[in-house]
């Protein structure tokens, strides 16, 4: 059972960093073999699916809502990210208890099942339920990919491998809006989901035969009771309550109604209870208190939360702008997003490689936040009559900043921590990223719905019959409206989206301020020997000397 214990080797003082990183670990700077690259390929495939599903669906959402005769525009995204959030913390525990390969294959199975059900959805309730199943697998896949990479590659090297994964993001982010838009235009949007199945199959084969990572010892009973079931239940209930309140507030129900206040209060209470339970009671905590015991890690967690919230809002509502205000079809909206999404990948690659080359991460993050703040700030001047070239150019600026932050934000999280805490640290990191996406989509939906309620012409609202929520399903029909109603509707959409951009500008500036908390912590050159590829041992005398030197530098930084 020793493999199930989380080693607590971090200082309890509220200073910058841990002063005693785990001595157990090994240098892994050697040449990578074929098995490593096949595992990396499996992780790249799943990363590709995650990004493709995200961007392709965003471009096709208005058509999907229209075809399924639904009104819950935001819930297609919210259901996915809600279950990702609720079950994601469990993925770190499953990786520790069942082993990396078993947990990864289980997550892949949930994702594939959800994708098949999404593709066959006949109404909105079916689609939302299927997206919830898909989200369970997707959140775990993303977390496990990061955990497995951290098992095989040292923090000093990881910028380079993040850059390589960034190439995958470049392709999928660039192609996603085009693929999603084109499929929606041709009435075959279901293949946005069906395309996940063969790629998942390839990833499954690679993981089954080549992901030969150690499996923890112990009986199923021991492993079952080692899971943090109470903690996971608390965070699932808390996340659900918050998302329900944010989704319903101001649109479906007034903010002062019991339907909003009850889940809001209960959600906050459950999350507070989760934190107290993890810190004070849990014997195998999902979130070890040591993870947030230094300001540099806290800064990294806060930055990833804020950037994920911001980009989720942008990805979901910039297609709404192009389709509602510029007469764009889903394909044309995808092309308009191309300038922004194409920029993300190269900046992920460049920033990751720069961290490996310089062994520094703070300057890249500061630069990224400046770009993100400026990009959203200038988006605030975009109106219905603004030439399309302007929002495309502004999107490229903010996308560059987002690419940098996405690539680099986990370095301040991991650099102060011992490698034995990598899995739990990264599970919390991805949990916050996915939770933030829920907030970003919900915040955007609340702001946009409330603004549209005030601004849309009464004549257009009468067409919907069921209130402003039905408006999103009517976006494809806006180009066919007669003047002056068409111009009034487009103006209303443009003015209603503007407050979303202003809100994101303020959040981006908060992210810049939070990045000032980071200390300049050296990047260690270790991996956790407990999770090395079977048959590979990399412990050397030089490894021990390297870690001793790293400890001296960390103490100096503190």
Can you tell me about this structure?
It comes from Coprinopsis marcescibilis. Keywords: Membrane, Transmembrane, Transmembrane helix. It is found in: Membrane. Residues 39-523 form the Major facilitator superfamily (MFS) profile domain. InterPro entries: MFS, MFS_dom, MFS_trans_sf. By secondary structure, this protein is mainly α. It folds into two domains: 30-228 and 284-557, MFS general substrate transporter like domains (Growth Hormone, Chain: A), CATH 1.20.1250.20; 229-283. It is 72% helix and 0% strand. The chain has 19 helices and no strands. It has helices at 34-67, 73-97, 100-119, 124-152, 155-185, 191-194, 196-210, 220-226, 229-248, 258-280, 295-325, 330-358, 362-379, 389-408, 410-414, 422-455, 458-464, 485-515, 541-557. Helix 5 packs antiparallel against helix 12 (330-358) and helix 9 (229-248) runs parallel beside helix 16 (422-455). The chain is globular. The two termini are 33 Å apart. Residues 1-29 and 537-558 have low confidence and may be disordered.
Briefly characterize the structure.
The protein is built from 19 helices and no strands. The chain has about 550 residues and is mainly α.
The CATH class label of the largest domain is Mainly Alpha
Integer average pLDDT: 78
Distinct helical segment count? 19
Please, what is the CATH homologous superfamily of the largest domain?
MFS general substrate transporter like domains
Number of strands: 0
Count of domains: 2
Pfam families: MFS_1 (PF07690)
InterPro entries: MFS, MFS_dom, MFS_trans_sf
Biased composition (Polar residues): 8-29
Protein name: Mfs1.1
């Amino acid at each position: 059972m020793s493999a199930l214990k989380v080693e607590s080797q971090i200082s309890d003082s509220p200073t910058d960093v841990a002063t005693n990183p785990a001595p157990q670990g090994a240098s892994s700077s050697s040449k990578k073999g074929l098995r490593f690259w096949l595992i990396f390929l499996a992780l790249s495939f799943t990363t590709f699916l995650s990004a493709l599903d995200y961007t392709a669906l965003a471009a096709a959402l208005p058509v999907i809502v229209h075809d399924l005769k639904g009104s819950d525009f935001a819930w297609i995204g919210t259901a996915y990210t809600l279950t990702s959030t609720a079950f994601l913390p469990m993925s770190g525990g499953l990786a520790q208890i069942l082993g990396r390969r078993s947990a990864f294959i289980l997550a892949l199975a949930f994702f594939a099942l959800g994708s098949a059900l999404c593709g066959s959805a006949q109404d909105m309730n079916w689609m939302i339920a299927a997206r919830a199943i898909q989200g369970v697998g997707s959140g775990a896949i993303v977390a496990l990919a990061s955990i497995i990479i951290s098992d095989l590659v040292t923090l000093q090297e990881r910028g380079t491998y993040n850059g390589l994964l960034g190439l995958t993001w470049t392709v999928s982010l660039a192609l996603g809006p085009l693929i999603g838009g084109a499929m929606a235009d041709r009435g075959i949007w279901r293949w946005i989901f069906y395309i996940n199945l063969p790629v998942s199959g390839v990833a499954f084969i690679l993981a089954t035969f080549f992901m030969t990572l150690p499996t923890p010892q112990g009986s199923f009973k021991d492993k079952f009771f080692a899971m943090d079931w109470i903690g996971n239940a608390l965070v699932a209930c808390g996340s659900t309550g918050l998302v329900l309140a944010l989704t319903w507030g101001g649109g479906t129900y007034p903010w002062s109604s019991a339907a909003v206040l009850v889940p809001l209060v209960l959600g906050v209470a459950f999350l507070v209870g989760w934190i107290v339970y993890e810190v004070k009671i849990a014997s195998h905590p999902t979130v070890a208190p040591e993870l947030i015991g230094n300001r540099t890690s806290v800064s990294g967690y806060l930055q990833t939360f804020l950037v994920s919230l911001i980009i989720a809002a942008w990805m979901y509502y910039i297609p709404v702008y192009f389709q509602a205000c510029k007469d764009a079809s889903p394909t044309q909206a995808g092309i308009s997003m191309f300038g922004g999404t194409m920029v993300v990948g190269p900046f992920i690659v460049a920033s990751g490689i720069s961290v490996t080359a310089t062994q520094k991460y703070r300057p890249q993050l500061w630069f990224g936040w400046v770009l993100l703040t400026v990009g959203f700030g200038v988006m605030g001047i975009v109106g219905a009559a603004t030439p399309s070239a302007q929002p495309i150019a502004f999107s490229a600026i903010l996308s560059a900043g987002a690419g940098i932050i996405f690539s680099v934000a986990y370095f301040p999280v991991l650099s102060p921590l011992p490698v034995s805490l990598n899995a739990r640290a990264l599970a919390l990191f991805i949990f916050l990223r996915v939770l933030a996406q829920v907030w970003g989509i919900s915040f955007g939906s609340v702001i946009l719905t409330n603004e549209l309620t005030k601004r849309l012409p009464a004549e257009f609202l009468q067409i919907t019959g069921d209130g402003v929520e039905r408006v999103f399903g009517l976006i494809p029909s806006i180009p066919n409206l007669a003047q002056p109603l068409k111009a009034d509707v487009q103006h209303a959409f443009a003015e209603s989206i503007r407050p979303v951009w202003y809100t994101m500008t303020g959040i981006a500036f908060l992210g810049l301020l939070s990045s000032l908390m980071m200390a300049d912590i050296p990047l260690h050159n270790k991996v956790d020997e407990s999770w090395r590829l079977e048959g590979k041992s990399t412990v050397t005398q030089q490894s021990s000397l390297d870690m001793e030197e790293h400890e001296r530098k960390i103490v100096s930084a503190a």
